[in-house]
């Protein structure tokens, strides 16, 4: 069974560019059945984390005050939020930028301008893998119980 | 100074495919409306030597411009953004003048697109 058809994945988009942020919301909601939610600043998203846990965060790097890298640092500090998957979305295309984002523990790196269909494919692939590992884990637990 | 600018039609086509023609037009209209205000904010930040704000504004405008295929506008924004990051203000005034012109020309082309 394809889990993507039954479970709506909560995708948070954090980007100070409201046009890009809203386009992503429309794209992800419209064609894929995800449940996207948009924040124009990392601070607001952080406040919301007290109540809701997203399945993934699409995070812009360059933002005023609290930028993407600061946000990741804050998330990784707390056990409750440290395992939330993060895809960095950025105009930074250099290898050095990619490497420093990887060192912070991101799960994906998407460069701007965004290729919308590549992004959706990567998200689908990511969630399919996640579903499979959860299934494998459950099967392993069941075998141990037997 | 720019006399003509390049717009990548593939970017608009991809946007239309991703969110539909109506929504693509809605966001393009928003971009066109907000662009002139963005340029004013950029000029203001430069005039008061607030390079942190200038870096941020040009970064955001580069990102939106790229979304609509305005590649010359995007690269000019990136040039100013990089100059801010490097603390190099030499020739920035000319770059900002060029940016204003490129913004005007890009918006004209994009307005005619629909």
Mean pLDDT of chain B: 94
Helix content of chain B: over 70%
N-C termini distance of chain B: 27 Å
- Low-confidence region ranges of chain B: none
Q: Indicate the low-confidence ranges of chain A by residue numbers.
A: none
CATH architecture grouping of chain A: 3-Layer(aba) Sandwich
Report the sheet-strand fraction of chain B: under 5%
| Count of individual domains of chain B | 1
Please give the structural blueprint.
The complex is a heterodimer of chains A (146) and B (114).
Chain A: H1 3-6, E1 10-14, H2 18-32, E2 35-39, H3 42-48, E3 56-60, H4 68-77, H5 79-82, E4 86-90, H6 95-103, E5 108-111, H7 116-145
Parallel strand pairs in A: 1-2, 1-3, 3-4, 4-5
Chain B: H1 9-19, H2 21-47, H3 51-67, H4 71-86, H5 92-113
Helix pairs in contact in B: 1-2, 2-3, 2-5, 3-4, 4-5
What does the model show?
Chain A has one domain: Rossmann fold (3-Layer(aba) Sandwich), CATH 3.40.50.2300. Chain A is about 55% helix and about 15% strand. Chain A is globular. Chain A starts with a helix and ends with a helix. In chain A, strands 2-1-3-4-5 form a five-stranded parallel sheet, with helices on both faces. Chain A is of the alpha/beta class. In chain B, helix 2 packs antiparallel against helix 3 (about 50-65). The two termini of chain B are about 25 Å apart. By secondary structure, chain B is mainly α. Chains A and B meet through helix 2 of A and helix 1, helix 2 and helix 3 of B.
């Amino acid at each position: 069974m394809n889990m993507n058809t039954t479970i709506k994945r909560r995708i948070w988009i954090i980007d100070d560019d409201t046009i890009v942020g809203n386009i992503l919301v429309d794209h992800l909601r419209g064609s894929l059945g995800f449940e996207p939610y948009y924040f124009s600043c990392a601070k607001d998203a952080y406040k919301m984390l007290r109540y809701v846990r997203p399945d993934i965060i699409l995070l812009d790097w360059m933002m005023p005050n609290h930028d993407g890298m600061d946000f990741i640092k804050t998330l990784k500090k707390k056990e409750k939020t440290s395992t939330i998957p993060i895809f960095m979305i950025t105009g930074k295309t250099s290898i050095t930028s990619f490497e420093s984002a990887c060192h912070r523990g991101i799960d994906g790196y998407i460069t701007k301008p965004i290729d919308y269909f590549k992004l959706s494919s990567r998200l689908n692939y990511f969630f399919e893998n996640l579903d499979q590992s959860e299934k494998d884990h459950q099967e392993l637990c069941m075998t141990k119980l037997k | 100074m720019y006399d003509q600018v390049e717009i990548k039609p593939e970017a608009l086509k991809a946007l239309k495919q991703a969110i539909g023609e109506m929504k693509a037009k809605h966001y393009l209209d928003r971009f066109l409306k907000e662009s002139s205000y963005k340029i004013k904010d950029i000029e203001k930040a430069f005039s008061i030597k607030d390079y942190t704000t200038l870096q941020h504004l040009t970064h955001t405008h580069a990102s939106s411009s790229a979304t609509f295929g305005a590649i010359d506008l995007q690269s000019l924004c990136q040039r100013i953004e990089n100059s801010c990051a490097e603390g190099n203000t030499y020739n920035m005034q000319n770059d900002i003048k060029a940016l204003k012109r490129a913004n005007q020309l890009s918006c004209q082309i994009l307005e005619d697109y629909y």
